[in-house]
Amino acid sequence: MKEEQRLLLLQSSSLFAPPEGVKLSYGTAGFRADASILKSTVHRVGILTALRSLKTRSVVGLMITASHNKVTDNGVKIVDPSGGMLSQEWEPFADQLANAETPEALLSLITEFIEKEKIPFDGVQTAEILLGRDTRPSGESLLEAAKQGISSIFGAMAHDLGILTTPQLHWMVRARNKSMAATEPAYFEQISSSFRCLVELIPNETKSNKMDNRVVVDGADGVGGEKLEVLKNMLTGLVIEVRNTGKGGGLLNDGVGADYVQKEKVVPRGFGSNDIGIRCASLDGDADRIVYFTVSDNSSSRIDLVDGDKMLSLFALFIKEQLSILTKEGNENPNNNSQARLGVVQTAYANGASTDYLKQLGLEVIFTPTGVKHLHEKAAQFDIGIYFEANGHGTILFSEFWLSWLEARNNEFSLVSEGSEQQKAALRLLSVSKLINQAVGDALSSLLLVEAILQHKGWSIHKWNKLYQDLPSRQLKVKVVDRTAVTTTNAETIAVSPPGIQEAIDAETAKYSKGRCFIRPSGTEDVIRVYAEASTQESANSLAGSVAKIVDRFLGFGSSEQ
Ligand code: 16G
Ligand code: MG
């Protein structure tokens, strides 16, 4: 490393002292903590992002957000050139950088890493980083820290794209590396025009149904609400009312948002008895997840939740239907024998009834550990891979290979059977691939896809919710002395350590009809999570309670809480 570069790094880093006595870790959601202690971390992530860009010789992204956390928290994560999450191989280095105690220690880590990773660091190669942040008040000064980190690497350039949803930034990084327009207007244009195509392709039978085309969306008082206010004006045939837009003085994620709605199963602020019967949805604080709900008839504060598993099921059903129209017999074209490999990916948290439903549709269902990066990686192995966590994180991935095949089929149809059912199916699938974010789960594009499919089928939210009935479930968390004492295998369904705990859980689970239960250490909180399912709510509660006691007996302080 050149002397000027060393001096620049030392000088810049000396302005950002790390917090004392705090060890941060680049978890599933990047670094996250109280915003007041994050400046040095974000500065160092700025440096790391520049290195990532040099190493990959591509544009990468840096997003400042703490998603559904409280407004006083913030966080930072890196977007890889594909538009996906930072490669897991770099996570340990991110931890080391963040926790280096002095500028000198930081510099020597960087020097070692550049050598180990053979990062081109000759000042010839340039680095380019797209920056985004959510609406948190701390975002602006943290973004400044990131910029200073980036500019402490010679030849690194930062483009500040202002306030964005997390999926918008991922989308733009992906687009940029494919030499496509990587701007917010381009994003809105792509998703609104593909939505329009899907609506234009609705069968005449359902078009005549007087479908309820209004949806009310809780914007979590965050960036998603703000962006949806813009997007909704670009749509026809759908009326979106946004509440908790962040403009009315409401506090981000405070009694609002997808995380709150899904976990508490109560209405978000601003919703109540006047909304009974209406289709509602809730975004999280950075708009990378969404759940639907209706206000319950029995109590205006309770909801009937339509979660990520139901979205996955709706999407899988629609895609499967379109694929079967597309490959309908009677077409003698020899190119028509390319059956798409369609796969769905879930985690152990997926309700067992959803898995049964998907299998009954004849689909291949695969399980991975919790966390978007695991699901995404598996889904990318299919021609069409659909993944969702129950909490509303997910998307649909189309392989480049299969999309080119589909484009070619569509061109053939234009020549020989313009306007045929098969061509319509091809066009619908092409539109889905443009509407649904190919980089990462995106609440805004998932919202529009749900709305398009419901209109296509002429379904109400109630009809959709009746695809299958969720098995009663219960989640608990248990505080333990050391959560790393629990290790798991088989997509987190079996606890390997501490020894004997799985046997104890199995013995308890066997007592319940349709009983299913697993434990895992949380990646975001210092607790062990317990998930239980059974044929009645009482038995699910009881199973979860007993297993929480088992966890406590093996590892705890002697107290467990909900
Ligand atoms: C993170 C993950 C989410 C997962 C959750 C589990 C991403 C972007 N987010 O928020 O997918 O469901 O962690 O939290 O991967 P837990 O480990 O505390 O249960
Ligand atoms: Mg989020």
UniProtKB/TrEMBL annotation:
It comes from the Eukaryota. Residues 307-459 form the Phosphoacetylglucosamine mutase AMG1 domain. It is an enzyme of class 5 (isomerase). Its EC number is 5.4.2.3. Residues 486-549 form the Alpha-D-phosphohexomutase C-terminal domain. Keywords: Isomerase, Magnesium, Metal-binding. Binds 1 Mg(2+) ion per subunit. It catalyses: N-acetyl-alpha-D-glucosamine 1-phosphate = N-acetyl-D-glucosamine 6-phosphate. Pathway: Nucleotide-sugar biosynthesis; UDP-N-acetyl-alpha-D-glucosamine biosynthesis; N-acetyl-alpha-D-glucosamine 1-phosphate from alpha-D-glucosamine 6-phosphate (route I): step 2/2. SUPFAM superfamilies: Phosphoglucomutase, C-terminal domain (SSF55957), Phosphoglucomutase, first 3 domains (SSF53738). Residues 57-90, 124-177 form the Alpha-D-phosphohexomutase alpha/beta/alpha domain. Its cofactor is Mg(2+). Interconverts GlcNAc-6-P and GlcNAc-1-P. Belongs to the phosphohexose mutase family. This is Phosphoacetylglucosamine mutase. It comes from Hibiscus sabdariffa (roselle).
